[in-house]
Amino acid sequence: MSEVPLHHILFVSTALFFIGMYGFFTRRNMITMLMAIELMLNSVNINFIAFNKYLFPEKMDGIFFTIFIIAIAAAEAAVAIAIIINLYRSHKSIDVEEASEMKY
Amino acid sequence: MNEALLLMKPELIVTVIIFILLILHVARENSSPAYLLNLINGLLFINFLCGFFFNREGTLFGDMYVTNGLIVLEKNILNLGMLLISLQATDWLKKKDFIVEFYVLLLTTLLGMFFMLSSNNLLMFYLGLELSSIPLAALANFELEKRKSSEAAMKFIMSSAFSSGLLLFGISMLYGTTGTLNFAQLAMLIDGNPLQLFSFILLLAGFGFKISAVPFHLWTADVYEGSPVAVTSYLSVISKGAILFVMASVLFTVFKPLVETWYNMLYLLAVLTMIIGNLFAIRQQNLKRFLAFSSIAQVGFILIGMSGSSQEATASVIYFVLIYVFSNLGAFGVIALVSAQTGKEEIDDYKGFYLSNPMLALVMTLSLFSLAGIPPTAGFFGKFFLLMAGAGKGNFVLITIAALNMVISLYYYLRIVKVMFMEKNETPMEKLQISLFPRISLLTCMAGIILIGFTTLLYDYIFSLSTSF
User: Fold this and answer.
1) Three-class SS of residue A67?
2) Per CATH, which fold does A6-91 belong to?
3) Contacts of A30 (CB under 8 A, 6+ apart)
4) Testing the interface with A: which of B133, B157, B173 to mutate, by most A Cβ within 10 A?
5) What residue in A sits closest to B164 (Cα-Cα)?
6) From the CB of residue B158, how many other CB atoms can be counted at a distance below 10 Å?
7) Please, which residues have CB within 8 angstroms of residue B8's CB and are 6 or more apart in sequence?
8) Is the ipTM of this complex over 0.90?
9) Do B276 and B214 contact (CB within 8 A), yes or no?
10) Residue B216: is it exposed, middle or buried by C-beta count within 10 angstroms (0-12/13-18/19+)?
11) Cα distance between residue B105 and residue B14, in whole Å
12) DSSP code for A98
């Protein structure tokens, strides 16, 4: 059985990154925007793992970085969701269009 | 063992203060706000003083952590800014319930910035960056019941998460092409192939978000307006200063081989940042929003200095950030006092401010003069050295654009001065009480603004610490 070549994996991760970016720009629901950011971070994780396995298997730098990204993404999501809950209390909505008191 | 402790001294002291606060919070639940604030400001003052003694140079943790004279100086500048902001915030914090939580979050971001400044590895850099930006989002939401505050926090966390996504994608590409995360090794291995250029653009975009350079500045004004004044001044001085220090060191060490490429990018960013920051600052009505755009314009000038990529460039960026700490905190100190006692933040509220509060109006005027760069104040020398460093490249178009922008900025800074001194107000502000701590802080800022302009010792000292490019 032949191994999956590196550039296939990179294609998947880059696609995932830009899908996440597209989602972040088009979605209006804050939770969905947060999910889009998670997509972007996960594409970075795939990148790191793939590079580490295919190109530099003798060192563990990439895998360590992935673990830290996962942990920090969780922390970021926790703070973001707390903020969104607090915003929901005052605005009664989690649509970003509703939270537009300050402009220009 | 002792050496390792001394190398990490700034981080360790901040960590100890955080733990003291946490334990105090559990052990003495009913301590009065005044007692807490005195204690915390004392601790921060000790922290600031400790920065001057027993400084060592060296690396730790397998080359992940590095410290030298320049980094210690940068940390001292941040400590000073932290102390000044804390002194200014006392009036506002006295009425709040969560004083300890406020300081724990604030000191955590300071700790993150210290690690970021000392990082010698992209992993360490990323960890420091996140540690310094996630708690700030929580701080922006500190006034839980205000609609604007939660809106600001939401915008801040979203844009900072997005920008760290960009930054990480860039880092992963850089790792893929070189196989290392260490700054020194990266500098040797970068050869400017297309994938590395792509990753560099992503990294620069990530930095651009954090320092609010122009195509990435959209979150700045909203976050500054919505957050409490103390957090706004922290964002605009400490957070921005730390990222600028790191950006200079990353550009000058890791991306040294690509200097021709990033010079043009910085050129474009600086011109856009100055022009758009200035034009938007002219039409603002809210004073915090006004200072947000003014700080965007200041970043444009700093980018010019940085584009010089020489020993002068490093020295002038650090020198300017030091002056910027004093002049911006002078302005924010007055705004914090006014906002804590009257709740007013619009420019029109400041009509006739001079008649009721002559000293505060004077402080504000000096700070604005320093921000605009009028000669006897320190701001002039800061801008002068930045432009000199930028002119080292021989690109005089850029310097001309910068000089024209300084004229535009003079217009809007003087507009505030005119409002305070010359316009009549039907309902003038009453005379404000200035308690001891804000008074010390404002006097320090004034001393800094006036004295730094008259002595060259400081610039020479910073210059001698800066490494040549």
Assistant:
1) helix
2) Helix Hairpins (1.10.287)
3) A84, A87, A94, A95, A96, B154, B158
4) B157
5) A41
6) 22
7) B60, B65, B67
8) yes
9) yes
10) buried
11) 12
12) T
In three-state secondary structure terms, A95 is strand
Average pLDDT over residues B347-357: 87
- Tell me the pLDDT tens digit for each residue of B311-334: 888 899 999 999 999 999 999 999
B143 touches chain A (CB under 8 A): no
Write down how long chain A is: 104
**Three-state secondary structure call for residue A1:** coil
Tokens in use for B439? 């008074």
Task: Count CA atoms within 13 Å of residue B412 on its CB side.
Answer: 25
Closest by CA position to B162, among listed B174, B154, B172, B151: B154
Cα–Cα distances in angstroms (integers) from residue B41 to residues B38, B52, B163, in the given order: 5, 18, 33
Tally of structural domains, chain B: 1
pLDDT given for residue B126 in this prediction = 94
State both tokens at B404. Answer: 């024209």
Q: In which element (H, E) is residue A55 found?
A: none
pLDDT band at B433 (very low <50, low <70, confident <90, very high): confident
Among all residues of chain B, which has the CA nearest to that of A75?
B134
Name the interface residues of A facing B (CB cutoff 8 Å): 17, 20-21, 24, 30, 33-34, 37, 40-41, 43-44, 47-48, 51, 55-56, 59, 61-62, 64-65, 68-69, 72, 75-76, 79-80, 82-84, 86-87, 90-91, 96, 99-104
Please report, as a single letter, which amino acid is at residue B380. Answer: F
Q: How many CB atoms lie within 10 A of CB B321?
A: 25
What is residue A78's three-state secondary structure? helix
Domain that holds residue B409: 2-465
Residue A10, Cβ neighbours under 10 Å: how many? Answer: 20
Domain boundaries, chain A: 6-91
C-alpha triplet A40, A41, A43: angle, nearest 5°: 65
* Structure confidence by residue, pLDDT tens digits, B376-412: 888 899 999 999 888 888 888 899 999 999 999 999 9
State whether residue A88 is helix, strand or coil. helix
Residues A5 and B150 sit within 8 Å (Cβ to Cβ): no
- Residue B58 near chain A (CB below 8 Å): no
Distance separating alpha carbons of residues B86 and B444, to the nearest angstrom: 13
